[in-house]
Amino acid sequence: MSPQRRALVLFFHPTHKASHAGKALAAAVAGMNQVTVRDMYAIYPDYLVDVKREQALLEEHDLIVFQHPVYWYSCPPLLKLWIDEVLEHGWAYGSGGTKLHGKTLLSAVTAGGPAEAYSPTGSNRHTINTFFSPFDQTAHLCGMKYAAPMVIHGARGLGDAEIAEACGTYQQLLSNYISTGELP
Ligand SMILES: Cc1cc2nc3c(=O)[nH]c(=O)nc-3n(C[C@H](O)[C@H](O)[C@H](O)COP(=O)(O)O)c2cc1C
Question: Which of 20, 84, 105, 128 makes a 20 to 30 Å CA pair with 135?
Fold first, then answer.
C-alpha cells in the first residue's frame, strides 16, 4: 500500500463564533483521516505561541494549510505572528534550516469580495495570487511547494448549499493530497 500523507490545518479566525463559511470549512475536514485541525485563536487567545509545539506539529505533517478569512488582502494578525515566530532561522530557512523541505503549503481562504473583484479590471485591481505572493515566497524560502490557493469568494452571502459545495471541494482537495501527494 502506498504511504498516506498527513495534513495540518491551521485555522486562524479572530471571531470564530461569528464565522459562517470558515467555521463550516474547518468542521468539514476536522473528522477526516490523516487530517489535524487546530483552531489557533482558541489555542492562543493571548497570542503566546508555543513555538516548539508548533514546530513539532509541522514536522509530523506533509501538507500545511493556512485557513483564514482574507483580512485587508492578507491574513489575520495571529497568523502573521505565528509565521514570524515559528519559522525560525536555522530551522525553517537559512543555514541548517531544512525542516520544512519537501512539504506543501496551501492557503485555504474565505473572501468577502466576489471573484470578479480580484482581477486587474476589478475593484481590488489584483488577483488573489498577487496579494498572496508573500505566502508563496515564504514557502519557497522554506523549501516548500506553494499550491494554488483555494478561495471561497463572496463568503458572507453564501447559502447552505453553496457552503456545502465548498466543504466538499475542500475535503476532496485534502483527500487527493493524502492519497497522491498532489494538489492542483
Ligand atoms: C478586518 C476585516 C478585513 C477584511 N478584509 C477583506 C479583504 O481584504 N478582502 C475581502 O475579500 N474580504 C475582506 N473581509 C471580509 C472577510 O474576508 C469575510 O467576512 C470572511 O472571509 C467571511 O468568512 P466567515 O463567515 O468565516 O467569517 C474583511 C473582514 C474583516 C472583518
Answer: 20
In a domain, 113, yes or no: yes
Question: What would the mean pLDDT of 10-32 be, rounded to a whole number?
Answer: 95
What percent of the chain is modeled with pLDDT above 90? 95
pLDDT(60) > 80: yes
Q: How far is the CA of 100 from the centre of ligand 1 (A)?
A: 29
Is 9 a pocket residue for ligand 1 (Cβ < 6 Å)? no
Cell of residue 22, nine digits:
470558515
Is residue 17 within 6 Å of ligand 1 at its C-beta?
no
Q: How many domains does the chain have?
A: 1
Domain that holds residue 171: 7-180
Q: What per-residue confidence (pLDDT) applies to 33? A: 96
3-state SS, residue 149:
coil
42 CA to middle of ligand 1, Å? Answer: 19
DSSP summary character for residue 89: B
Query: The pTM is what?
Result: 0.98
For 48, counting Cβ atoms within 10 Å of its Cβ (0-12 exposed, 13-18 middle, 19+ buried), the class is exposed
Judge if the beta carbon of residue 92 lies within 6 A of ligand 1.
Answer: no
